[in-house]
Amino acid sequence: MKVRRLLIIAVSLTAIVFLAAATKSKPAAVTFTRDIAPIFYKNCVECHRSGEIAPMSLMTYQEVRPWSKAIRERIVDGSMPPWSADPKYGHWANDPRLSQAEKDTIINWVNAGSPKGEDKDLPPAPKFAEGWTIGTPDVVIEMPEEYSVPADGTVPYLYFSMPTNFTEDKWISAMEIRPGNRSVVHHVIAYAQDSKSKDTAPGGEGELRSGRTHLGGITPNKTGVTFGEGMARLIKKGSNIVFQMHYTTTGQATKDRTKIGFVFSKEPGRKMLVTGNTINTRFVIPAGAANHEVTASKTFDDDVIITSFMPHMHVRGKSFRYTAVYPDGRSEILLNVRITISTGSIPTSPPSRYCCPREPVSIQSPSSTILIRISSIPMRQRPSAGATRHGKR
After folding, report:
1. Which of 118, 153, 158, 314 is most buried, by the most CB atoms less than 10 A from its CB?
2. Which domains, from first to last, does the chain contain?
3. What is the pTM of this model?
4. For residue 219, is pLDDT > 50?
């Protein structure tokens, strides 16, 4: 009898232990405040906040909830966060991609009905300088007046010149170009120009390259850029800032007044940044070509350090590859950008986004060449037909 009583007690205790273990292993429900907000704060809200380049803000639960299913779709198809660089080549400081665990967390949250969670679990929201992604600029220079963009037609490239009023040379550690009306600005390229050089009339056509230094450019999906430690751009005293403006009409007359902000370096840059490009303007894409490749190359005479790449294409481009070719015959793929095109779809090009290596790429062999290959989209998938001539850089 005594043995039987002990056996019953042992069985009961075992059941209690198993029940407790099962209860403990059940995962907690995924909530916005505890699980989703930290992901969005880290990867998304630099663009997805009021006044920035994304179409909606993802700062609060109230802003996110109506978009939750659309967010899930974009996470599943890989289009958000936007990044087209092939992960097989290079490691990138500004790579916004989510880990698989982060993707699963967002998908599970949406599938569970997108619950909010407890307010006490919400981490502090990141702080941004109002209207800027580089922090508060030391100086802001803008177009002298608004430009009226017509409702229809083609607007030629326009050039606007603004004085810096710098009384001494300035080293720049960060810069950001902000269109006044992103809906009509296809791109902006900014230059610093020697004030003693004859400049293009404001708003006039043409481009005078003499005395002009390329500072950088933007397309609608690009934010500001902060240069690496010890690196800076030099703008000479008395220089003018020149904008090359490419406007596109939208069917509605509107206005734009673009500006640029600079953050000054506290000391002269140990390495001076300059912008180079590789251009091929003498090519024709044959009508009906299924996979036409165009190449361009640049050979360096001195040792260089590459801090960023900026592949830029329009609707006819589908891939973009940078390859370093060394004097001894070795080659190395530095960046490979591709898009996936569905049959019968209207293509969209790989985004024109700076790709910044975690560690600058050092090309220490004089006579090394950077070779760029671009492949075009098959003609039947383009929104327009006919042979096309289009430069690239």
Report:
1. 158
2. 32-121 (no CATH), 139-272 (2.60.120.230), 293-381 (2.60.120.230)
3. 0.72
4. yes
